[in-house]
Amino acid sequence: MSERLNRYLGEIDNKARHWNRNVGRPYVRAYDAAFSSYNNAWDQQKEDDKTKAELFVLAASIATGSVLTAVLATSSLRVVAGRVLLDTVCKYNLNRTFEVIHFTATNKAAMFAIGKVLDESRSRIGKEIQQAALKAMTSSAVVPSASAINYFTRVEDFVDTNAICAHETAVAIRDSDASTAEKDRLVQQLEQASFYNPPPLGCINEQTLANKMELSFFMADILNSDFVVERVTETPSNPMLAAKVGAVPVSTKRTPIEVMPRDGQHYPQQYRSRANFPRQGQNTSYSVEINGPGSKVRDRIDVLHKSLYNNRPFFRDQGFFDLTPATRNVELQSAQRILEQIGDVMRPRNPLATAFH
Description:
Layout: H1 3-45, H2 55-62, H3 67-77, H4 84-100, H5 108-114, H6 124-137, H7 148-174, H8 180-191, H9 206-223, E1 226-234, H10 239-245, E2 248-256, E3 271-277, E4 282-290, H11 295-308, H12 325-346
Antiparallel strand pairs: 1-2, 1-4, 3-4
């Protein structure tokens, strides 16, 4: 057996342990702290339960300080029945992450495990490698949950799956009829993959990461708080009655907005109206409205925002609720901007990098 290949096989378990200790477990602990604090703020506000299974995917995709979590979030998006807006936010960030680090393979998980050797197709060994990788990366359906233990086991399963993929690929190379020189060339490519190059211990500041995760949860809530209200009213034909009671409500319909607020071309206008049946005095009006958080949640958002953005609060006026559409639209755009900024700061700059935050 090639000495290099033998050494590679012997190192796989150790690489997995490093990924779990240096990245996986710190991310889980940060997520657990962020999730608990986030729910506590909503509990104090006595609002509806804000537990959401997709928060895990949001945390992994926005606060992506490691290729491990970026790839894990990508594979998790397909099993989470999340909202359209969340899907848009996550995919936007993940696509930019992989563009920056030049991940080109369709199967991001397999590329994380074995790198560019996945694209080998010049010989029969290339097909054997691809078959071994595909078999190793095949997984069963995941039951979505927001709990830390679910997050923890999914990260560990993901690391183990990549270790299995790396091992099976190396075995396929070992058992092939390729020359020793060719085997060494392929193993050299395996050694350049992200999985084989775990980051060092202490690369993650858990408290800062937890704050960024928690703030991203609240920003997602704000982004999902807007909706279009369609109101149909009718003015009585009797002038005296019309003067006395004015327009009478006929129907009201609320529709969530699944367009990002900074998309000026497609985001709904603040107000518009039209006459349906002028002779009958019926009119339909449209308005963009927002369910803003209460004071306890607003306080917590400002604390997090100050800790990350030079002591500046998120909300413009802490003294009272400015519920004007213009002000709330500014908050929506700020929430989108913050999610993008967190993604930019946390984004790894190369396939082997982990952000030190």
